[in-house]
Structures are given as structure tokens and as C-alpha cells.
Design brief:
- The chain is α/β, with parallel strands linked by helices and 164 residues long.
- The chain has 8 helices and 6 strands.
- A 4-stranded parallel beta sheet has the order 1-2-4-6. The protein has a two-stranded parallel sheet with strand order 3-5.
């Protein structure tokens, strides 16, 4: 793989895989492993772009993570409306904001039990805010935020810079 040293652009909109027995028997894990192995050693630039309204989640995020390449050749970009992360916001909220923690939060605020759905929604919104392009850029998880309308020009310029 990579004998011609051609750059790769990956448009991603994958929810990932569970890593369970079903994925094992259906060959999903083997396919993901093959992609990881190929990207890990790929000598040319690899651009991962998560377009408008798309998501990159779970095992798919792990497979395409920009740190996977031993040469540092993977760069990740996403549209402002895209989302990304290992867990969905609901999964993160289940771990980070257990019922007892939300009730404690409500108690501090003097909220009534009927307000629980509002607090739960707030927890989900908080978790979703960490999956947005601006937050991921601030954490240096991605390399840039590129609106879909500008993506063609952006990647054309990137390729021209790299290929001379």
C-alpha cells in the first residue's frame, strides 16, 4: 500500500462498530484492522473529512484517528455541523451524569423532581457540545474546521502545497 505515494482523502460518515461477537463473525473487526494497518504505515498525506451533518463515532473514529499514522501524515477536518467522538452524547451522559449526580445538581439548584427531564437534556447538550468541531479543534483532536461549501477549494490548495 502506498507504493505510488498518492494522497488519500477520506469522506467519513460512520457510526463505528461495537467490537462484539457479531462484528467479529461478520468480518467488521478484520476490515477495521486492515484499514488501521494500512493507515498506520501509509507514507503519503491522508486527509479525513467529516462533512456537513455527518458523524464519525466509535471504532470508526479509532480507525481514522490522526495519531494512527507513524509518520504523522493523517490530518482530520470537519464541517461546523459535523459531530465526532468515541461515544455518542447519550453514552457519555450515561457515564458522566448518572441519575444520582443529576439529582444532586437539582438539589443544589432547588429544582423539583418534575424538572429532571430538563436537567437530563442539559447533560446531553453539554456532552454534545464536546463533539462539535470547535471543541475538537480547541482540544487539538482535529486540524481544522472547513465548511462543506469551501471543502473543494481547501483540499485542492492543500494538495497543491504538498505536491508542488
Amino acid at each position: 500500500m502506498g507504493r505510488e505515494h498518492l494522497p488519500i482523502i477520506i469522506l467519513s460518515n460512520w457510526r463505528g462498530f461495537s467490537g462484539g461477537l457479531r462484528d467479529l463473525f461478520e468480518g467488521v473487526l478484520q476490515a477495521g484492522s486492515g484499514i488501521v494497518e494500512g493507515l498506520r504505515k501509509y507514507p503519503a498525506p491522508v486527509f479525513v473529512y467529516i462533512p456537513r451533518g455527518a458523524e464519525l463515532r466509535g471504532g470508526a473514529w479509532v480507525v481514522l484517528d490522526k495519531q494512527i499514522n507513524e509518520h504523522g501524515n493523517v490530518q482530520m477536518f470537519m464541517d461546523p455541523s459535523a459531530r465526532g467522538g468515541i461515544l455518542e452524547p447519550e453514552g457519555t451522559a450515561e457515564i458522566r451524569f448518572k441519575k444520582a449526580a443529576i439529582r444532586e445538581w437539582m438539589e443544589r439548584d432547588g429544582a423539583d423532581e418534575k424538572d429532571y427531564p430538563k436537567y437530563r437534556a442539559g447533560a446531553l447538550q453539554f456532552c454534545d457540545s464536546h463533539d462539535r468541531a470547535e471543541a475538537l479543534l480547541a482540544q487539538q483532536v482535529i486540524d481544522g474546521v472547513v465548511d462543506l461549501a469551501d471543502a473543494r477549494d481547501f483540499f485542492t490548495k492543500k494538495l497543491e502545497e504538498l505536491l508542488g
